[in-house]
Amino acid sequence: MDRAAVIAIYDRLISLHPGLTRKGKATAYTAVNGNMFSFVGPDGEMCIRLSKADIAA
């Protein structure tokens, strides 16, 4: 899947959560209180940072 398609999916996911906005031009990302928790990398991979509790589950 190309990066543009991944960005479109990413934008749809973000739109489901009021208060979240996509930031960044070169690297699309979301952040809360200045802490980035998701982004789309240059190769189109979508990355999400999980809490330790979520990782353990």
What does this structure look like?
With 57 residues, this protein is α+β, with helices and mostly antiparallel strands. The protein has one domain. The chain is built from 2 helices and 3 strands; from the N terminus they run αβββα. The longest helix is centred in the first third of the chain and has 13 residues, at 3-15. The model has no long low-confidence stretch (mean pLDDT 93).
Topology diagram in text:
Elements: H1 3-15, E1 28-32, E2 35-40, E3 46-48, H2 52-56
Antiparallel strand pairs: 1-2, 2-3
- Largest sheet: spatial strand order: 1-2-3
Structural class: alpha+beta
Quaternary form: single chain
Could you tell me the strand content as a percent range? Answer: 15-25%
Shape annotation: globular
Biggest β-sheet description: 3 strands, antiparallel
Structure keywords:
single chain, 57 residues, 32% helix, globular
Short description:
This protein is α+β, with helices and mostly antiparallel strands.
